[in-house]
C-alpha cells in the first residue's frame, strides 16, 4: 500500500512551482499636462500561462473586462465613456503572445474641476487549470503640485511699484508673500479661474511693498489638501526684474523694426 501512495517528486516540484509563481501586476500613474491622468496597469504572467481576463474597477466598482479577442490582427480592446465630469478611455493590449505580458491604460480627461480622489483597481487572471491571479489598487489624488511662481513688476508713472505673482495647480493654490522670510498680507487676491486647457486652477495675487524692501520680496505657491501641504518653487523680485527687463527689450526691438 505504501508504494501505491508515492507521488513522483517531479509532480510535487511542478505543483509547488505553480503556487510560488503568481501573476505580477503593477500600477503606475501620471499627471499629463494639458490633459489629465494616465493610469497604467501592466502584468506579467508565469511563462507557460495564458491570459484569461483583466478586470478594471473605479472606486471598487467594476467597469471594464478585457478578454483577449483578435481585432484587426491585434489582441486589443478599447472603450471610451463621455461623462459629465470627464472623458474616460481604456486601451488594453497584449504585448506578448497568449497575454503573458500586456497593459491596460486608463486615460481620464477632466471636463470640470476635479474635487474627489478615486481608486483604480486591476485584477489579472490566468487560464485554467490554475487561474493564477494578481491584483493591485491605487488611489489617484485630485492633487497637482503648483507650478513655479511667476512674478511681474508693474511700475506706474507715479507711486511705488506693485508686484504680481501667478501660479496654477489643483486644488487652487494659495500664494504666500514674504519679506525677509516673514509672511506679509497681500494687497489683493484674484479669484481662482478654472483653465479648461491645462485642467488646473489659475490664481494670482498682488503686493505693494515699501521701495526699500523690493529686493527682499518673495512669493511662494502652495496647495493644501487635507493634511497635505505641497509647495511650488518660489519667485523673487530679482527674477521678476529680469523677466520684465527682457520683455521691455523685446518690445523696444519690435518697435524699432517697425519704424525702420
UniProtKB/TrEMBL annotation:
Keywords: Signal. Residues 1-22 form the signal peptide. Gene3D superfamilies: Immunoglobulins (2.60.40.10). It comes from the Eukaryota. This is Ig-like domain-containing protein. It comes from Loxostege sticticalis. The lineage of its organism: Eukaryota, Metazoa, Ecdysozoa, Arthropoda, Hexapoda.
